Amino acid sequence: MAPHEVIDSISLSVLISIILKSSIKYATCLCIIIINILLITSLLLVKRLRTAQSLLLINVCFACIFFSIACILSVSLTISILYTKLVNPYLCQFTGSLILSSSHGLMFSYTLVAFVRFLTIIYPFNKKISSTHYIKMYLIIKWILAFLLPTISLILPKQQIIFQSKAQMCTISQQSPLLFIYFSTAYIIPFILISLMNLVTYLNVTRSRQMHLLSRTKQSRLNRHKLRNVRLLRQFSFFTIIFLIGWTPFIIVEAFDKKGNIPDIFYFFTLLLPLICILIDSNAIIYWNRTIRHQIQLWWQSLIKKTEILNYETNIPKHNHKAISINTNADTSNV
User: Fold this and answer.
1) Distances from the Cα of 27 to the Cαs of 115, 178, 279, in angstroms?
2) Which residues pair with 87 in a beta bridge?
3) What is the distance between the alpha carbons of residues 59 and 66, in angstroms, rounded to a whole number?
4) 171 phi and psi, to 5 degrees?
5) pLDDT at 240
6) Which of 55, 238, 49, 211 has the alpha carbon at shortest distance from 124?
7) Torsion region of 214: left, alpha or beta (phi above 0 gives left; psi -120 to 50 gives alpha)
8) pLDDT of 333 over the 50 cut
9) Per residue in 256-283, pLDDT tens?
């Protein structure tokens, strides 16, 4: 493997276009990171939100942050490659594997939420399957798979991750046999599993009848859980639709546009769309969770008050200094 690969020079207009596109990606990734940090902080600090189910939401937020950081590193590497006109294959493979790992981690996080929700609704009285111990075990297995699958591209003798001039990023080669495998593990299989589990749980909740053997208290509690589960399923169905809209164009282009006939602006849109959809999902979590939204509003109001107090304290010495100078002038005039 050559230590460096040389790429062709680009025109000034293309470079300016790349910088503008990179700035949009940077801004979107930073918004995702800030919003998900606020979500994680709220889930950790608010006592009523410290539940076993919150671990799944924290995991989704962490996966969004990890994916955004990987995208920032990828965009930074692209700018460095276009500036130096040299491609370090080892750094390119490392960045590409980070993108693959973060993509798998994000998709597996959504799948894990659907899986735990599926078990909770199908087996409402089995508390073990949704306990903290089991959820931690699910998360460990999920992240092991998310990091293990992309390492296959690093083990194979032929270089599988390369710098693609059309995508302007280090990613899996379109001629690689692993391309369909990664599309299946990171997109097709998670989407099929999420759709099937949501469908089965929705049918189970809407068609279930009252159980006469249960006491009135347990039956009332079960009905409340059903209403809550229906609401959560509808919300998660919204996330699934956004997930489908965000990733489908990119998958289609990568799979079928072998000759690079797609216009650059459309290709850029397919790369930006997954980030926009992650941003929409993060804002939807804040919108639907009243406790988290209220906590973020309290933090924002506290920050504004602290800023106003700080500005007020910095202005006081100036006024005092003016008052002292006026008084001293008056004293000297009387003398």
Assistant:
1) 32, 31, 11
2) 5
3) 10
4) -150, 180
5) 81
6) 211
7) beta
8) no
9) 776 667 777 777 888 888 889 999 988 8
d(CA 284, CA 272): 19
Amino acid of residue 174: Q
Domain limits, the chain: 15-214+223-305
Q: How confident is the model at residue 143 (pLDDT cuts 50, 70, 90)?
A: very high
Kindly report, residue by residue over 166-206, the tens digit of the pLDDT. Answer: 666 777 777 777 778 888 888 889 989 988 888 887 777 66
Residue 269 C-alpha from the chain's centroid:
18
Neighbouring C-alpha atoms within 13 Å toward the C-beta of 326: 6
Q: How far is CA 260 from the centre of its chain?
A: 28
Instruction: Kindly report the pTM of this predicted structure.
Output: 0.80
Longest dimension (CA), the chain: 100
CATH fold, domain 15-214+223-305, is: Rhopdopsin 7-helix transmembrane proteins (1.20.1070)
Q: Which helix (H) or strand (E) holds 162?
A: strand 161-164
Residues 6+ apart with CB under 8 A from 214: 222
Q: Which amino acid belongs to residue 218?
A: K
Q: How far apart are CA 236 and CA 198, in angstroms?
A: 8
Q: How far apart are CA 164 and CA 172, in angstroms?
A: 9
